Structures are given as C-alpha cells and as structure tokens.
TrEMBL record:
SUPFAM superfamilies per record: Dimeric alpha+beta barrel
Protein name: Antibiotic biosynthesis monooxygenase
Keyword Transferase belongs to the record: no
Annotated organism of origin: Bradyrhizobium lablabi
InterPro entries: ABM_dom, AI-2_Isomerase_LsrG, Dimeric_a/b-barrel
One Pfam family of this chain: ABM
Origin superkingdom: Bacteria
Keywords: Monooxygenase, Oxidoreductase
Length: 99
C-alpha cells in the first residue's frame, strides 16, 4: 500500500474556491483504479493549509493518478490559488519520498 500526504498553502482570498475545486477533483479520483481513500482537509493548525491524505493499492496506480485528465484540470485550476508549491510525501515500504 502507498500513502500520500500532500500539503498546499492556500491564498486566504481563494480558500473557498480551492476547497470547492478540490472536492470536484476528489469525486473523480475516488473512481480511479487502486484508489483506497482520498480526503482533503483544512489543517487544524493553519486555516490556510490544505492537507490531502491518500491511500493507493500500488505505485503504478498512484502514477496513473498523476496523469489522469482531471488532475491536469485540477493543477491548472489551483495553480493561482497557492502561496507556494504543494509538498508531496509518498510513504511506502517504510521509506518516505518528498517532492
């Protein structure tokens, strides 16, 4: 199993639109092969930090997710609503990769 934690600092003025857009992305992601869970949350410590917690069956499934058409739409839509790039941590087999 592959775990992913993705954190994105949102612009305060775009927070509601960011969350709404991510909810639409979530609906499509949950239909993908190998997606066990995919949830987005506002951080309890920082109201402008969005945290996505994902679980995937395999790395191939996760890689396919990154190439999915709705992810391209999401990346373009959300790009102007961030104060910095998303930090992605992939956890598998006892190791953590950070992007």
């Amino acid at each position: 199993m592959i775990y992913v934690i993705a954190t994105t600092p949102m612009k305060p003025e775009n927070k509601d639109d960011f969350i709404k857009g991510h909810k639409a992305c979530t609906v499509e992601t949950l239909k993908e092969k190998g997606c066990i869970s995919y949830e987005g949350h506002v951080s309890v410590n920082n109201p402008n930090l969005y945290v996505v917690v994902e679980r995937w069956e395999t790395r191939d499934d996760l890689n396919a997710h990154g190439r999915a058409p709705h992810m391209k739409v999401w990346r373009e839509y959300s790009s102007q609503m961030k104060t910095a790039p998303t930090v992605i941590e992939i956890i598998s087999d006892g190791k953590v990769e950070k992007f």
